[in-house]
Amino acid sequence: MAKKKKEDQAEELEVKEEVQEGIEAEATPEKSELELANERADEFENKYLRAHAEMQNIQRRANEERQNLQKYRSQDLAKAILPSLDNLERALAVEGLTDDVKKGLEMVQESLVHALKEEGIEEIPAEGNFDHNFHMAIQTVPADDEHPADTIAQVFQKGYKLHERVLRPAMVVVYN
Predict the structure, then answer these.
(1) pLDDT tens sequence across 113-148
(2) Which site in 21, 56, 71, 146 is 20 to 30 Å from 109, CA atoms measured?
(3) Which of 117, 132, 143 shows the shortest CA–CA distance to 172?
(4) Residue 130 CA to chain centroid, in angstroms?
(5) Are 160 and 83 in contact (CB under 8 A)?
(6) CB neighbours (10 Å) of residue 150?
């Protein structure tokens, strides 16, 4: 009987091991399915986060573009008006104008300059040192003791900028 009991215990142990192996075998596919599901969930979360970040970037770029369009909306109109302003200045420089005509031209010029300033358009200063970002040298003259090199000698045409953007550089003569 003791022998049979040992055989039964050995058989029972064998069955338990088989059952345990079966459970582990069944658990492994479930575990791998769970791992796959978790990996897919992580992948979807990653894709969602990337898409969300991309949408935020698109919105930010659209807002910046809208702000730039608003900021520089008057650029084309200003470029069209500047030649008329130049012509008014040339007309005012003509000698022999009657006081009434001169006063009328000055009033028109002042109103144009005021309207441009309200839109953020300013004249580029054309005195002192030459700055290639704001000035265009159309001619050079020799420098001397009173006039050092790279300074502006004469302004042929005024330059204008809209905020920090140059609409038209000032055309100048530079001491060289």
Answers:
(1) 999 999 999 999 988 899 999 999 999 999 988 889
(2) 71
(3) 132
(4) 28
(5) no
(6) 15
Q: Dump pLDDT digits (tens) for 63-118.
A: 999 999 999 999 999 999 999 999 999 999 999 999 999 999 999 999 999 999 99
In eight-state DSSP terms, residue 73 is T
**CA distance linking residue 174 with residue 143, whole number of Å:** 9
Question: Which residue shows structure tokens 């990337």?
Answer: 50
> Which 3-state string (H, E, C) describes 111-146?
HHHHHHHHCCEEEECCCCECCCCCEEEEEEECCCCC
- Rg for the chain, CA atoms, rounded: 41
pTM, two decimal places: 0.66
Between CA 137 and CA 12 the distance in angstroms is 103
Cα–Cα nearest to 85, from 104, 101, 105, 71: 105
- Rounded distance, CA 150 to CA 161, Å? 22
Query: Residue 161 CB: number of other CB atoms within 10 A?
Result: 19
